[in-house]
Please model this.
Amino acid sequence: MRSHLLNGTTAERYRRSVTAGVERVAATLATTDRPFTGVRVDELSPVVDAIDLDRPLGDASAALDELDRVYLRDAVYFHHPRYLGHLNCPVVIPAVLGEAVLSAVNSSLDTWDQSAGGTLIERRLIDWTAARIGLGPAADGIFTSGGTQSNLQALLLAREEAKTPSHHFTRLRILTSECSHFSVQKSAKLLGLGPDSVVPVPVDQDKRMRTVALARALEQCVAEGAVPMAVVATAGTTDFGSIDPLPEIAAICRRFSTWLHVDAAYGCGLLASLDRRHLLDGIEHADSVTVDYHKSFFQPVSSSAVLVRDRATLRHATYHAEYLNPQRMAAERIPNQVDKSLQTTRRFDALKLWMTLRVMGADGVGRLFDEVCDLAAEGWRLLAADPRFDVVVEPRLSTLVFRCIPSGITSPTEIDRANLHARKALFASGEAVVAGTKVDGRQYLKFTLLNPETTAQDIAAVLDLISGHAEQYLGDSLDRAS
Model:
């Protein structure tokens, strides 16, 4: 069994095994002609369940053959130009190279004596990101597993900064757009706040937070004796890609002495944009910011970070353990990243972004993100001119929310069912993958465009497929009714 351990004596075996795995993936990518095979749960589950995990195959080649059957063949491939589903991006090769390196070396980024150069690389990238945001010389941050964890940590810091002995947790309030990410509500629950602690703020026709409504909500909180612990603004909502008016929100937060957190998990790609950086104007006033490099920097999952304006606030996540990061190490200025993190053992995810920037540069990443935003604008024009579809808002980033309006149908309920059916039928066919959501209680579809290889022709073809499935469903419904 020792021959399976990665070390100096097994380096050649490691090289052969990893090369074989890379070859399998490369061959699959080169021959995959659709984003999904359409396999059903009841088809694939028995194949996986039949594998006896207590009887090893003993051979990497045999294990890869098996993996073809249970995973590679039927995986959902985000690299395909007709994957238009969730906020999953195709990944750039330098980042995948970084992933291979970090997995093999297996550094843990909790303490200096486990990571050394990895610690310094992560810190350098945090400084780079904070400078791109404009947070100032006292800024700091930490890499996280994703936007949900980043939002949780930011709101933990906000809670600790807001509370006093006279502020019971049930009095604390978080104000956020009604289109913000569900992790805000989830974080409130995990932080022990009351069920009414999250106050939704109405949005305008472009799905951006109404600043007048925010100011009124804050005034009402104060009048009721509640404590507005944080305002969460969103720079790139999951459904619409909408960006809240950050300068105005920042001014309101200053007036009420309230922590401003900006969830830029999606919109952080604008930090590298050559054409659209101005859309993030005002983010520099935030007290904390979430960024997801694995959404709009074309990084493999996971690669995310939370940034703060004042590094001193990270003390609220600091605990010292004698076996790991004793207090004396802080006095000796030994850089232990666990002092800032909610996690202890933590992957060296920063290496993927480091390799990307060192090979492609920030401008290269920004050009790719600008391409998908341009594509979304073109897709919006297609949808707005097509009588078969109703599109909700003109995109600022790269999402399009719309629904098919089949000919001759006026019932909103039937239109909902037709759109649900179209999405499921499209997924089952494997020809394309799209997402779904609800707008004002009605069923809509969503394109999330993060692949620069996707074209306007791909969008038009998928729209034809959606319309065809919706019309077929309604035709079948009429036949059943008669």
Remarks:
- The radius of gyration is 24 Å.
- The CA atoms of residues 26 and 87 lie 23 Å apart.
